[in-house]
Amino acid sequence: MVHQPVQLSDEQIHQFREQGFLILDKFLDLELVDQINTRLDLIVTGHYETGVFPDESHGRAGTSQPNAVQQITNVWRCDRTIASFSFSAEIARLNATLGGWVDARFALDNCWVKPPGSSEVPFHHHRAYVSSIDPCSVITCWIALTDLIPEAGTLELVSQSHQWVCSDQVRFLYAPVEDYRQPLRTAANQAGVEHPKIIQLTIPRGGCVFLHGDLWRGLGKNTTQEQTSRSFAVSSFPMNAQFQPPGVGYGYIFGRYRMVGSLEMDESFFPILWTPNGYRTPMVELYCQDALVPHKAS
What we know:
The chain has 6 helices and 14 strands.
């Protein structure tokens, strides 16, 4: 199945920049969604095709409660089929277009699995978690691998909250001890927004939502008895992104890839994925194919 490139309209780009998010009900063909799910079925149980562990893996099967939220960061390290989506030039191009950038490099990927009864994920904005990067600008393509519905703990967000003047702090995003919407209310109060309107997204399998890094978002509780919610997210930085000086910002994951004596981001871990002239970091083609680009005959 050949993926058909998405051409965003001026209206869609304006909508994203005004509201902080953009939904595409149809993004990946369901055969491609099945490819991702097949590989994730192995990964969530600790079976890694490359033999390399992800940077984070919370709620692992067999080591956590059956209804624990599962979240895996930098899944590309575990599996080259997953990497073929994480390193897709198409996703990077769309993230860059919406971000107003002329190019894009890989930031990170995440898999989220919310089984029946799983708890909420507190409201937050992505910027707080990438504050060790300069510029602190990130766009995420969040892909629905199952139908995302409010009852199963879908994404919740507040339109235009990326424009708020407020602060956030890094917090543990699993099994929150406080009301998961409290960080949102605190931020809204700082921004002078009295009654923030929370939108619970409904996205069909294969659809996606693009999220501005400053947009406030969280995940609701999965109140269903049988439906597991699963998503895969790919985030991009502009190509000129580099590290802040040591000690500046939060860099729990990013900091482990910092080079001594340099603020540059190593392309082996943060490859350049899309530029107008077609340049991509050479290691990407050595590591995996691009799932959304027709393969060249060998």
